[in-house]
Design brief:
The chain is mostly beta strands. It has no helices and 16 strands.
């Protein structure tokens, strides 16, 4: 913002699923130094409206969230490795136009107010047309009734991402994710599987649970004369389980696919993508498109 070392970010997003569900989301974020670097303060406001249909019952779910986060980048003045430690407080309220019938397993209305601690290692570097380096994150989120929360949920999430340069033009990228929610908020399984953000080729959130494990492997190759254009071959592996004790690495979904990438530099380096994922088990495929890569 005018050289003030501050960032204002606004996103308006609409998603449409093949099963007819759709959602609209408005997200506002303001980032500023706290006192001085290396501390940072973030404010975030989110409103999301989801139109959902289950067994011919239609409902509109509205979620409002306010969050404040404080972080310290230890790489700036203390350590040689890029580590950041952060904490956040979040207030979330979910409303339903109508209560779901008792025979349907669906989210309830209510409040989920929580505190989060996070540790991040971010050594990802941006070249003109690609990224390289590693990213790791570990976060623990806890809901507290004394904060006005209806749920004392504990959520643990770990993520590892790597971008490896194979030569001047090609990359091998990978991501591994382990997520577990205990006593999940709104009395509804916290994680789904399937979709552009995790396992491409599966029906979006067709299965749900309180534990999720998945990995994405991608080979991305670009053209020498047009390095802003690229193709990818990928393999996605993972599943969602009832809880942590139910995780079974012998019970996994496998999908394969190919995709198209176009880095549009004139729009703040936006990545336009088009992916086709094929479910090997069901012998069925899904097409995905968007302007923001999953990783």
């Amino acid at each position: 913002l005018n050289g003030a070392d501050q960032t204002l970010d606004f996103r308006a997003q609409q998603e449409e699923e093949s099963d007819g569900d759709d959602s609209e989301e408005l997200r506002f974020r303001y980032i500023m130094p706290l006192f001085s670097r290396p501390y940072e303060l973030q404010w975030r406001l989110v409103r999301k409206i989801e139109n959902i249909e289950i067994d011919d019952f239609e409902n509109i779910e509205t979620t409002d969230q306010f969050a404040m986060a404080v972080s310290r980048d230890w790489h700036i003045d203390a350590l040689k490795i890029p580590i950041e430690v952060g904490s956040a407080i979040s207030f979330q309220d979910r409303g339903l136009d109508e209560p779901y019938p008792e025979n349907l397993e669906a989210r309830e209305a209510g409040r989920y107010n929580s505190l989060t601690l996070a540790l991040v290692f971010d050594d990802v570097h941006n070249e003109r047309y690609r990224r390289y380096g590693s990213f790791y994150s570990l976060a623990i989120e806890q809901g507290f009734s004394w904060l006005g929360s209806d749920y004392d949920s504990t959520i643990f999430e770990f993520q590892a991402i790597g971008f490896r340069r194979l030569d001047r033009y090609d990359n091998f990228n990978y991501r591994f994710v382990l997520e577990v929610a205990n006593d999940s908020p709104f009395d509804y399984p916290y994680y789904g599987i399937g979709g552009a953000s995790n396992i491409r080729g599966l029906e979006s959130v067709d299965d749900r649970g309180d534990a999720r494990v998945f990995t994405n492997l991608e080979y991305v190759f670009t053209y020498k004369r047009h390095p802003q254009l690229g193709h990818t071959l990928f393999l996605d592996i993972g599943n969602v389980y009832e809880d942590l004790d139910s995780i079974d690495l012998g019970d996994l979904h496998y999908t394969i696919g190919t995709g198209f990438r176009w880095k549009i530099e004139s729009f703040v380096r936006t990545d336009l993508f088009l992916d086709y994922g094929y479910d090997v088990e069901e012998k069925d495929g899904k097409l995905y498109g968007g302007t923001s890569l999953a990783f």
